[in-house]
Design goal:
Length: 514
C-alpha cells in the first residue's frame, strides 16, 4: 500500500500507520517468523508497493503461492473487514493485478533462466560441484587456461572439453600452471556430469539472462515483479542458493554507482534464506557479506525471508536495517535462546517486553522496526500487517502458461542457442591434429618406402655390376691361361687357368674399391 509516497506496511492497534521509506530500502531488510505466521503476506505487500512506485522486484517463489500477484484479489467478507479496520478504502486501496513475469531455471513453468559457465565463475561453480580445495584450485586453473587460449566456456560440454584437453596435455601445462593431476581432473569431470543430470545442462547456455531485463516497467509505469518459480529448484538447495547469489553478484558488477536515491533501482527478496548460508564455506560467506554491504550503493535493496534471524550470519544481519519479526515459538532451550537473540536486535519499546511479545504474536501480526530519514532504526512497534491487493495463493497452469508465452522476454530466451565455443574449437583442433598426425605418418611411410626402394635398387645395381665383373674375370683368365698353356703344355694350361682367374679377381677387386 502506498500513501504519501511511502510504503504503508502495517498499523498498530491504536491506528498508527507504520511506513517503510522507499529511500531506505537499499539499506536492506529481514522478514522472519515461524511457518504460517504471515511472512508471505508481508512479502506480497512490500512487493506490490514497490511495484506501484515503479520499482522492479525480483523474488523467489518457493511454494508457488506468490504467482497470484498477476491477478486481482478477491473481495471476501474477511477481506472487507480488514479493509474497513485499517481504513484502506479512503487511501486508494483496491483489488488489482500487478505486472508479473515468471521465470524458471529449468524452463518448464517460466521463461528459461540461463547463464554461462564463464559468468558463473570458478568460485561459485566449485561450490555447486561440491569440490574440495585441490579440485577447486584445478578448476580455477582450467578457467585460466581457457582465458589464455581464448576458449569460450558457455555450457557444460565446453567445460568438459577443456578439462579433457588439460588432462591429455597436462605435462605441457605443468611449467606455466603447475602440476595437474589427471585423477583430480577426472573427479571434477564426474561432478560436472552429475550437475548435468540435475538440470545444469539446461541452466548453462545461451542466450544468458540480461540483468537489465529485470529492471523493466509496464506501460502504466508499475515496476515488473519478476517471479522465479523455485518449487523444483528448491529440491537442489545448493543450486538454488548459488543461483540467487550469482544474481546478486551480477547486479553488483553490472549496475553503476548511484548512492542513496529516493527510490531503489531494484528490490530483491530472497525466500528460504537459510539455504543460502547452510554449510557455506567461509570464503563464500565473506563474499555475500561484501556484496550485501556494497550493493546498496548500486541502488539495490535485499530482503531476506527466513524462519529465524539466527539463520543469517552476524556480518550480514548487521546490515539489515528494516525488520519485520513475526511470531516465534519457544518450545526448547535452543528456541528460547533464538527468541532472546531476535528480541535483542530491536530497539526496546517501553510499552512491552520484546521477548514476550515475539512469542505472543498472532497470525498477521508482527514486531516492526524501519529506518527513519536519518537511517536510524525506529523503536519497535507491535502492529498488524496490511492485506495485499493481489490474489492470495497460486494460479492455474493454464494461466501461468498464458502469462509466460505472452511476455516479450519469452521469444528472447525460449530457444537455446549453441554458439561456437570451446567444445567446437577443441573438436576442430582435435580433427586438425588427427589429420596432421595422419599426414605425418603417411609421409614417414612414403619416406620409408622410398628408402627401401633405393636400397633395393642399389643392391640390384651392385649385383649387376658383380655379375659383369665375374664375366670379365672368366674371359681374362681364359685368355691368360691359353697363352701360358701354349708355352708349358698341359701343366701350363692348369697353371695358366688358376693364375689367370686369380689375377682377374685381384684386378677387378681393386677396381670396385676405387
Amino acid at each position: 500500500m502506498v500513501k504519501d509516497g511511502k510504503i504503508q506496511i502495517a498499523q498498530t492497534e491504536n491506528k498508527q500507520d507504520i511506513f517503510l521509506l522507499p529511500g531506505m530500502a537499499n539499506r536492506h531488510g529481514l522478514i522472519a517468523g515461524a511457518t504460517g505466521t504471515g511472512k508471505t503476506v508481508t512479502l506480497k505487500v512490500m512487493a506490490e508497493s514497490f511495484s506501484r512506485l515503479g520499482v522492479p522486484v525480483f523474488l523467489s517463489d518457493v511454494k508457488g503461492d506468490l504467482a497470484g500477484m498477476i491477478s486481482a484479489g478477491e473481495e471476501t467478507s474477511d477481506m472487507q473487514e480488514r479493509i474497513e479496520r485499517f481504513g484502506l478504502a479512503a487511501n486508494g486501496f483496491t483489488m488489482q493485478p500487478f505486472p508479473t513475469a515468471f521465470f524458471d531455471v529449468y524452463g518448464r513453468t517460466g521463461i528459461p533462466l540461463r547463464t554461462t559457465i564463464s559468468e558463473m565463475g570458478p568460485l561459485l561453480l566449485s561450490r555447486i560441484l561440491d569440490l574440495n580445495d585441490l579440485q577447486s584450485d584445478l578448476l580455477t586453473i582450467a578457467f585460466k587456461i581457457a582465458d589464455d587460449n581464448n576458449l569460450l566456456l558457455i555450457d557444460t560440454k565446453d567445460l568438459k572439453a577443456v578439462l579433457n584437453y588439460i588432462s591429455e596435455n597436462n605435462t605441457e601445462f605443468a611449467a606455466a600452471y603447475g602440476n595437474i593431476s589427471k585423477v583430480s581432473v577426472s573427479a571434477i569431470m564426474r561432478a560436472v556430469v552429475a550437475l548435468e543430470t540435475n538440470g545444469g545442462e539446461i541452466f548453462f547456455g545461451e542466450p544468458a539472462i540480461n540483468i537489465a531485463d529485470f529492471l523493466a516497467r509496464d506501460p502504466s509505469g508499475k515496476g515488473m515483479i519478476n517471479v522465479l518459480d523455485s518449487r523444483s529448484l528448491i529440491t537442489n538447495p545448493t543450486l538454488y542458493a548459488l543461483f540467487l547469489l550469482y544474481m546478486l553478484s551480477e547486479l553488483f558488477e553490472t549496475l553503476p554507482e548511484v548512492g542513496d536515491q529516493p527510490l531503489p533501482k531494484l528490490v530483491f527478496f530472497f525466500d528460504e534464506a537459510h539455504l543460502l548460508f547452510k554449510d557455506m564455506p567461509k570464503l563464500l560467506t565473506e563474499k555475500i557479506e561484501q556484496v550485501v554491504k556494497l550493493i546498496r550503493s548500486k541502488g539495490v535493496g535485499i530482503f531476506f525471508i527466513t524462519q529465524n534471524p539466527r539463520d543469517i550470519p552476524d556480518g550480514v544481519l548487521s546490515q539489515l536495517g528494516n525488520k519485520v519479526q513475526h511470531a516465534l515459538r519457544a518450545y526448547t532451550p535452543a528456541d528460547q535462546k533464538a527468541v532472546k537473540a531476535a528480541a535483542q536486535s530491536f530497539r526496546e519499546n517501553p510499552a512491552f517486553k520484546t521477548e514476550d511479545a515475539i512469542q505472543a504474536l498472532g497470525t498477521g501480526e508482527a514486531l516492526v522496526s524501519f529506518l527513519d530519514e536519518s537511517g536510524v532504526p525506529a523503536i519497535c512497534e507491535r502492529a498488524f500487517i496490511l492485506p495485499p491487493e493481489s490474489r492470495m495463493g497460486s494460479i492455474s497452469d493454464a494461466e501461468r502458461d498464458t502469462a509466460v508465452k505472452s511476455s516479450f522476454l519469452y521469444s528472447k530466451y525460449a530457444n537455446p542457442v549453441d554458439p561456437d565455443s570451446a567444445y567446437e574449437f577443441l573438436q576442430r583442433k582435435g580433427l586438425a591434429d588427427a589429420a596432421a598426425a595422419e599426414n605425418a605418418a603417411l609421409a614417414a611411410a612414403n619416406e620409408k618406402e622410398l628408402a627401401k626402394q633405393k636400397k633395393q635398387s642399389d643392391a640390384a645395381k651392385k649385383r649387376a655390376a658383380k655379375s659383369v665383373g665375374n664375366a670379365v674375370v672368366g674371359t681374362v683368365g681364359r685368355e691368360v691361361g691359353k697363352n701360358i698353356g701354349k708355352s708349358f703344355g698341359s701343366f701350363g694350361k692348369t697353371l695358366g687357368g688358376n693364375v689367370g682367374a686369380s689375377l682377374g679377381r685381384g684386378i677387378l677387386s681393386t677396381l670396385f674399391k676405387c
